[in-house]
Amino acid sequence: MNNHDGINFLQWCLPRLHYRWNGFRKVRRQVCRRIKQRIKELNLSGIHEYQKFLEESEEEWNILDSMCYISISRFYRDKKVFQVIESILFPFLANQSLVENRAEIRCWSVGCCSGEEPYTLQLIWKLSVFPLVKQHLSLNIIATERNRILLDRAHKGIYTFRSLKELPVKFLREGFIKVNDEYLLKDEFRENVELQCQDVRLNTPSGKFDLIMCRNLVLTYFEKELQKEILERIVDKLRPKGFLVIGAHEIFPKGIGGVTNYRNMKCIYQKSS
Ligand SMILES: C[S@@+](CC[C@H](N)C(=O)[O-])C[C@H]1O[C@@H](n2cnc3c(N)ncnc32)[C@H](O)[C@@H]1O
Questions:
Q1: 73 CA to middle of ligand 1, Å?
Q2: Which of 147, 217, 226, 230 for a ligand 1 pocket mutation test, highest count of atoms within 8 Å of Cβ?
Q3: Chain segment 174-229, per-residue pLDDT in tens
Q4: How far, in Å, is the centroid of ligand 1 from the Cα of 111?
Q5: Are 2 and 43 spatial neighbours (Cβ–Cβ below 8 Å)?
Q6: Other CB atoms closer than 10 Å to residue 199's CB: what's the count?
């Protein structure tokens, strides 16, 4: 499959699966590699034969859908966002929980990949924010992901330096044990992170949340209608004054009620009280 055929194929199939071609454009190689492998498994001659096969097999669309994901993530990705979470959002939510007599802050990480995002939150909370909160309060995170292979990696908690290079040295030093060339996340930072295999198009974890991280998935890869439907569900899951964080390069769609932009920060929204 050459580059041109790959692009044509994705432009044809992605909208049928309610994905946005624009989201996949720059990172399409991951998906093309999986499709090539699938063509080999099916013993087909190439992408044109695969396209014909799809037209005759409804089931194959589900398999193609399961190949359309991008597994790029890093600890502390978009550092400014995590700095704001550390210095403003967590202290605000900690105060809010104490005023309301709650012993936990609840967070949902949507499309958590191999755990980079929820574990970053737990590192920040346990190493930086919690020591300043002089009362019993825990950060409980539900991290959902559709892909079981990525979830298994999250369970193992072993990373290469590449996915950790943006993490401040303090968190790297105190959060990980170096094993040969890799880094193992210490058990204490996996506590209170519940990993669940879930497709955000179909399921939502139960209960309300103080903080929802929905970055680099829904607003990048899903088509507009689907974005709105999922975002409305997500906003509904926020507690009053809770925060929704979207990706640093994502645009919040018009017409979603219930949240307002927080202090002019492009990717942070707060639920109205
Ligand atoms: C580009 S990564 C972003 C990871 C993380 N949120 C971040 O910003 O670093 C997108 C993740 O969403 C997962 N994903 C894709 N479709 C999904 C779906 N329908 N439901 C849940 N997770 C999904 C992918 O497997 C991948 O791990």
A1: 9
A2: 217
A3: 999 999 999 999 999 999 999 999 999 999 999 999 999 999 999 999 999 999 99
A4: 3
A5: no
A6: 13
Q: Per-residue confidence at 78, pLDDT binned at 50, 70, 90?
A: very high
Whether the CB of 251 sits within 6 Å of ligand 1: no
pLDDT in tens, 155-164: 999 999 999 9
Say how far apart CA 181 and CA 163 lie, in whole Å: 13
6 Cβ closer than 6 Å to some ligand 1 atom: no
Q: With CA atoms as reference, report the closest residue to 133 among 161, 111, 105.
A: 105
> Is the shortest distance between the CB of 23 and ligand 1 below 6 Å?
no
For residues 133, 136, 137, 140, the Cα torsion angle rounded to the nearest 10 degrees is: 140
Domains along the chain with CATH numbers = 3-67 (no CATH), 79-271 (3.40.50.150)
- Tell me which residue has its CA closest to atom 27 in ligand 1: 113
Q: Give the Cα separation of 103 and 136 in Å (integer).
A: 6
